[in-house]
Amino acid sequence: MTGTLRDQPRGLQVIEYIVSKCCPNRHINRMAWHRGGILALTYLAYTCYHMTRKPISVVKNVLSLNCSSISPPPNVLINSTNRDTWCDWAPFDTPDAPALLGMLDSAFLFAYAAAMFFSGFIAERVNLRYFLTFGMLASGISCYLFGIARPYNIHSLWYFVLVQVIGGVFQTSGWPGVVTVVGNWFGKGKRGVIFGVWNSHTSLGNILGTLLAANFVESDWGLSFMVPGVTMGLAGFIIFLFLAPNPIDIGCIPPVPPRIRKFDAAHGSDEGSSADDCNNDVEDRLIYRCVYREQVDVDDETSLRSETSPILAKHRRVYNPHRGNAIGFMGAMAIPGVIEYSLSLFFAKLVSYTFLYWLPLYISASTTYSATLSADLSTLFDVGGIAGAIAAGVLSDYTGMSALTCAVLFGFTVPMLFVYDYIGSSSMNINIVLLLIAGLLVNGPYALITTAVSAELGTHSSLGDNSKALATVTAIIDGTGSVGAAIGPLLAGLVSRWTGWHNVFYMLMITDMLALLCLSRLVYKDIQIYRQRRRAV
After folding, report:
1. Whole-structure pTM value
2. Using H for helix, E for strand and C for coil, what is the string for 71-131?
3. CA distances from 325 to 136, 293, 460 (A)
4. What are 6's strand-pairing partners?
C-alpha cells in the first residue's frame, strides 16, 4: 500500500508535518481542527466571490455623472487627458445610463443563472479544490478586466457586457462548491445555526467590496475593480494550498448518516460517534476511501478485497456499491420541496439583488449624500443581513419549520419596504435603523434557503443510496433564484428611469408576497407536522 493519501493539499501536508514535529506525543482532535479550517477557508472563498460582485454598484454613481455640472473632489488632479472624463464615462454619460447600467447587471446575472445549472452538475464530478481555485482565479481576472477599462480608455459597451458575462459564468463555481464542501464535513445537527453564522460571508463580502470600491471611486474607479480582483486571485491560491474538499482526502471519516448511526448502535459499534474521526492508519484510510467510491490504486483495491476487517465488512453491508453515484437533474428536481423553494428563492433574490446593485445609487438619488457616503451607508443593509441569516438559522433549528420561518420573514418585509421608501431619506438616523431592519428581513430567508434548506434537501431521505446530490440541488435552487436576481436589477433600472423609485419599491413588495405564496404548501405541511408533534406529547 502507498504511505500517503493521493492529492492531499500541499499546505495541509506542511502544517501536519510541523504539528507532528512540535507536538509528537500530544493528542490533537484532527477532525475538529480540520472542520474549523474548512469553515474558515470556505468563508474566505465566498467572501471574495461577493467582494468582486459589489464594485459595480458603487461605481454606478460616478459613471453616470455629468462632469460639466459638478466640481472634482480635492484629491482628483485635472489635466488635459481627463478634463472631460474625470467622473462620467461613455457610453454611460447619457440620460439612459440607468438602463445601460442595468444591462450590465443583467448580463452578469443571466450568465450566472444559466451557467449555475451546469456548474452544479460539474461540481458533483470533479475535485472541488481545483474547481474552486480555477473559478476564483477566473473571477478575479474578469473583475480586473473591468477595471482596466479606465487606464486603457475603453468605452465600448459590448466590452463591458462581455466582461460581465465571463464573470457571471465563472462566479457560478462558488456557491455549489463551498456548500458541498461544508456539507461533506458537517452532519445534519444544528445546520441552521452553523450555516446562519457561516453565511455571513455573503454580507461581509458585500461590505468589503463596497468599502474597497468607495475608497477609490472618486479618484480612480478602475482600482475599485482591480484591487478586489487581485485579492480574489490570492485567495484562490490559498484555497489551492489548504482546502480538503472531503474528509476522506486527509484520512478522516465523513459524518455518518443517521440511518447508518442507528445500524452501528444496533450492532454494538460506536464508529462515527468518536470525538476524533480522523485515522492515522493508512489501511483504515484506504478502507474508507473504497467505501465512499474514492479512486485507489489497483494494488490497493486488490488488498482491500482480501481485507477481513469487521469495519469494512460492516460498511459493505450498509453502503450500496452505487452510493457514490451523482444524481441526475430530473432526479434532483423530484426531491420534495426543491421546486417550491426554488421558486421562492427566485423572488427573494430578485429583491435582494436589486438592493445589492442599486442601493448606493438610490441613497444618493433620494438624499444629498455624496457617492462615497452613499456607498458606505449602503453597507448597513448587509450588516443587517448578517443578523438576519443567523436569526433565520436559529429559528429554523429551534422550531424545525424552515418554510414557516421564511414565510414569517417575508411577511414582515413588505411593510418594512413601504416604510423605508417613504421615510428612509428623512434623516441619517432613520435611514440607518431602517436599513439594518430591512437587511435582516430581506436576507434572512434568502440565506436560509440557499444554505441549510439546500443542504437538507441535498441529503433528503428520498434519495436512498444516491448520496451525491448536494451540489446539484444547490445549483438548481440557487440557479433558479439567480434568474430572479438577473431580472430584478434590470427592472429596477427601467422602472426607476421611466416611473421613479417609488414604483421600484412597489415592485419589490409585490415580489416578496409572491415569494411567500410559493411556500404556502410547505408552510401548511410544517404546521401539520407541528400539530402532530403536539398531539404526540
Report:
1. 0.73
2. CCCCCCCCCCCCCCCCCCCCCCCCCCHHHHHHHHHHHHHHHHHHHHHHHHHHHCCCCHHHH
3. 27, 9, 15
4. none
Instruction: Answer yes or no: is pLDDT of 3 > 60.
Output: no
Residue type, 239: I
What contacts 267, CB < 8 A, 6 or more positions away?
314
Secondary structure class of 471 (helix, strand, coil): helix
- The DSSP-derived string for 192-259 is HHHHHHHTHHHHHHHHHHHHHHHHHTTT-TTHHHHHHHHHHHHHHHHHHHH--SSGGGGTBPPPPPHH
Q: What is the C-alpha separation between 175 and 54, in angstroms, rounded?
A: 16
Q: Which three cell numbers stand for residue 240?
A: 489551492
Report how far residue 437's alpha carbon sits from residue 423's, in angstroms, rounded to the nearest whole number.
14
- Range in 311-325, 348-362, 469-483 with the lowest mean pLDDT: 311-325
Report the length, in residues, of the chain. 537
What single DSSP character describes residue 451?
A: I
Select, from the ranges 219-228, 230-239, 420-429, 490-499, the one with the highest average predicted confidence (pLDDT).
Answer: 230-239
Quick one: pLDDT band at residue 281, thresholds 50, 70, 90?
very low
SS3 (DSSP) at 468 = strand
The residues, ordered by sequence, that sit 6+ positions from 83 with a Cβ below 8 Å of its Cβ are none
Chain centre distance of CA 65: 32
Contact 436, 301 (CB under 8 A): no
Q: How confident is the model at residue 180 (pLDDT cuts 50, 70, 90)?
A: confident
Which pLDDT value is given to residue 309?
35
- Check: CB of residue 396 under 8 Å from CB of residue 452: yes
- What are the residues whose beta carbons fall under 8 Å from the beta carbon of 364, sequence distance 6 or more? 61, 370, 371, 374
Give the three-class secondary structure for 217: coil
Residue 172 sits at φ, ψ, to 5 deg, of: -70, -15
CA distance 167 to 243: 23
Q: Which residue has the cell 443517521?
A: 258
Residue 512: which residues within 8 A CB-CB, separation 6 or more? 347, 348, 351, 410, 413, 414, 417
Q: Quick one: cell of 472?
A: 446539484
Assigned C-alpha cell, 20: 507532528
Amino acid at 155: H
Confidence of residue 330 (pLDDT cuts 50, 70, 90): confident
The verdict on whether omega for the bond into residue 24 sits within 30 degrees of 0, i.e. cis, is: no
Mean pLDDT, range 424-439, rounded to an integer: 92
